[in-house]
Fold these 2 entries.
Entry 1:
Amino acid sequence: MRITHKMITNNMMSNINRNKDLVNKYDEQYTTGKRIQRPSDDPIIAVRALKLRTTLSELEQYVEKNIPDALSWMEVSESGLKNINTILTNINTHCNQGSNDTLSVSDRNSIVENLTQFKEQIYKECNANSAGRYVYAGYKTNSSITYDTTSQDVKYDITEKFDGTDIKKISKVIGGYTSSDYDSANPDKDKFAMAPTLIENIYRLRLSYDKMDDVKMTADDITYTETTTDPDTGKEVKETFPISNLGVTVENKISTDVDAYQPQENQIIYLKDTGELIMDAGMYEKLRLQGEDAISVSYHKTNFSEGDCRPEHFFTCTSTDQYGVVRNYEKTQQQIEYEVSFGQSIRVNTQITDVIGTDVARDIDEILDRVNQVLDVENQLANVNQLLSNSDTTTDQKDALNLLKEQLTTEHVLKSKLMRDAFESGIGNSEKYQAQVNIAIADLGSRYSRVQLTQSRLEDQRIDYTELKSENEDVDLVDAYIKLTSAENIYTASLSSVAKISKNSLLDFI
């Protein structure tokens, strides 16, 4: 075959271009540090790179965003729970002190002041928030657990549920006098003949609020549950009935009425000012075996003070604002979950109903009320003693004052006993609330540990996938430099060879 000059030239140009392409390829690898510059260079490497980059992107989303946000939420929640637990410990300590018989007036005032502060602070902790989101509020993260200011514009129709164990036996002192009942102009000692008495075996179902709206409660507002057997299926069926089915009537009163704590047979007394349902032993026997959430009480409240709990976080209720806008709230488990790994979500929130209810505030308010009653009687006794110390006091006046003092002393003894009982109840109740808080802390802690373990695993995965990605995409710079240098030498040699050959032309053969 005859080799023409054109064939030699074409071959030389082809070889030069191929060598130049190799120089360009290794130069791109060396300068970019990547094996390929486009998918067509190596489709297998390109496909694997896409998969590894997608996985790494997801890992970074979990490790750098989702998990830190979840941990932050849970850390705020845990801090609040531990603070609540500490406050309950302090409440327990003060209740122990308050049950002491030898307390002075100043000691009691100090305890009352501290308990008031504890009550306020325990619900301040419930308003803990993370990045503007209230962590104990379930799905309603823009709504605080308690009122920041007084609210009188929104009416709530509340349905609160109880079981038989929520009905407690209480005692009450009825009767009694004050120093203002004494008339120096007409010192009739017979006026103080009736001694204060202690009524026991009163059964009470305490609602979560006091100072209710002036709306009468009826027997239809209180329901109970009965369990029957379906004759067709043989399965147990729970049915709800109004309390009137038991032949019960509801009487509306206020706590200052003479017979407010003396219910008749088959009668429940509703005290709207204190938020109490009072019943006798017979009524208690009918309801004491009711199971969880089997007793339901519906009532109405509009006036809320600063620090009061918002009903929507605790109960099934309906609110109606001043413009007539109605909102319905259902008491449900509201779990906020974060996706912390591939196909793995975990609950980050702790709902307020899992931590604490409104009973803490009601218990402390009751202790404060009992203490204030004792302090009031002590003040009345001080006034009577001052009147007796007056040298101008007549015999009749002294007789009336001494009898008044005797009755006040009796009242003081009875109310002091109730005060100590309230403090002792506070000891047991605070321990019960602490147990519930400790369960919430333990549950939150276990979920927090799971997120930390997941975080550790994903960080290890991210390191592994980063190495795989580097092995798949990155070039060895030393090897790339050697190849680039070799390609450059070959390219230079080919140019030199072409220069020598291209000097010959047709004239050289003539």
Entry 2:
Amino acid sequence: MNIAVIGTGYVGLVTGACFSEMGNHVACIDIDVKKVEKLRKGIMPIYEPGLEDLVKRNYQDGRLEFLTSLHEQSIEPDVYFIAVGTPSDEDGSADLQYVLAVAKEVGKYITKYSVVIDKSTVPVATADKVRQVIRAELKQRKLQIDFDVVSNPEFLKEGAAIDDCMRPDRVVVGTDSERARTLLKELYAPFTHNYERMIFMGIRDAEMTKYAANAMLATKISFMNEIANLCERTGADVENVRRGIGSDSRIGFSFIYPGCGYGGSCFPKDVKALIRLAEQYDFEPKVLYAVEARNELQKNILGQKILAKFGGDLSQIKIAVWGLSFKPGTDDMRESPAILFLEKVISRGATVKAYDPEAMSVAKRELPVSWFNEEKLVLTQHQEEVLKDADVLVLITEWKQFRNPDFTKIKASMRGNVIVDGRNQYDPAQLQALGFEYVGIGRRTTPLPYNKMTSIVQEEEVCIAE
């Protein structure tokens, strides 16, 4: 099958590479000329395990090509995937300008029956707008060409996207066309060979399903973070609570790990967009308001713990940071809790050394230049380099290489003995036996005075509310 994937961001590049791996001819199209040139040379714009090898192999074998415009294609597509960004607008709603711009281009160049697939995360009723734009372009061309618009949301996890795409747990397709349904079944047959994984539904159902899925996962995270904060105040240990509730099959263990808040390109943006969608329909989404508010507070929790421990003046404090990306397995720093943490402690005078296995280049590009010029933030080449003379080690991203380090070497290298565990990766009893002061999220052994921590949290909540 001949496929055009418009957009070579995270979703588009992974989608294009995986479909080409299954024998299809795929043209990945992006208006960013420099990005296209780099992709032709095998230089990836993102880090995703396995993606580089997949792209290089299929490009060399001629199944995958990179173009800057639809009109460059030599083969007419059977399927167009719209995989461009839908960033948050000023009011939190999804900005559809790039999606509709692609629809206009499709309308200019479509020559035969094709299926146009919304792969981007889009609000309910976007397919109707895409259809209208394509029809308007065909009218301008004085042509009558049949086409269908389908919603086929992606459910890729950064860090495991190739596996998610090649072995999906479900393929959601929203369509009211039997012709499109037949074509989509053929398209996804290689991915669903072992058992039926395709779920067909209405177009608006599929559009809502994507938002509902991300909002549900974000809700589980925020709920568990709220329980963790309550545990700190009551003397309960959230790790035991997590195991106690996760063993209930109705709840499960996924996404109930407390920490320093969720980030990335999906959860924050999609929760905002779903809130805005609800408001547009005069509906007050109280649960979603709470999910977003708790996460904003939680992303400040590590900074609060540092201030509670060392006071408001951090000018004499050296902080070691492990992890900058919003999650392990990616170099993506969008909405990462690390950004808010760095802003808070550097603004209070702290000196920070940080290390991340993949996000160093992104950090140099995205973080304020003044932090580097004034040496308030130093990025090191190895995780052990950040430890030298540090007063406190802060774990922000739970990369595997941070999970079982040599704590004896860590203690010998540090000036202080405080470990702030933003992902509850370590055993408090073990670290305390080694002479460390352990600070976790909702752990019973957290040594911060309740009254001191409470005053700082209240101060932060007022600032965020304002």
